[in-house]
Amino acid sequence: MDSCAPREPAFEDESEAYDLFTRGTALLRDRHPAQAAMLLRRALSLEPGRNSIREGLGRAEFALGRHREAADLFDALLADCPDSDYAHYALGRCLLELGRSDEARAHLRLARALAPHTELYRETLAGAEE
Known about the structure:
The chain is an all-alpha fold. Helices cover about 70% and strands about 0% of the residues.
C-alpha cells in the first residue's frame, strides 16, 4: 500500500501501470483530463491499491465534472490515509459540487487543520462557510 506522504509511486519504473500513470499525470498537467482519466483508469485496474493513481484519477474525474466518481476515489484514498490534507480538500470540493455542504465543510476544515498554512484550503473553506 502507498504511504500517506506525497511521493513518487513505488511501483516498478518499467511496469505498464507506471507508464500509464506517468503518461496520465502528464496529460492531466497539460489540461487533458479526458485522456488522462482513460490512462489512469487502466493504471488503477493494474494497481488497484495505489493512492497516487487514485489521486490523479480523482483529479481528472473532477475536472471532467464527474464529481461522484471523484468523491469515491478521494474517499477510498482517505480510507488508507486519513491524514491526507489534499484528499480531505479534494473530497470537500467534490461534496460541495454534489450539494452536500455540511459534509464538505467538515472535510475542508480537516484539510485546513492538517495544513494550516495552505491558502487554497483557507479560501475554499471561507467560501463554503458563506
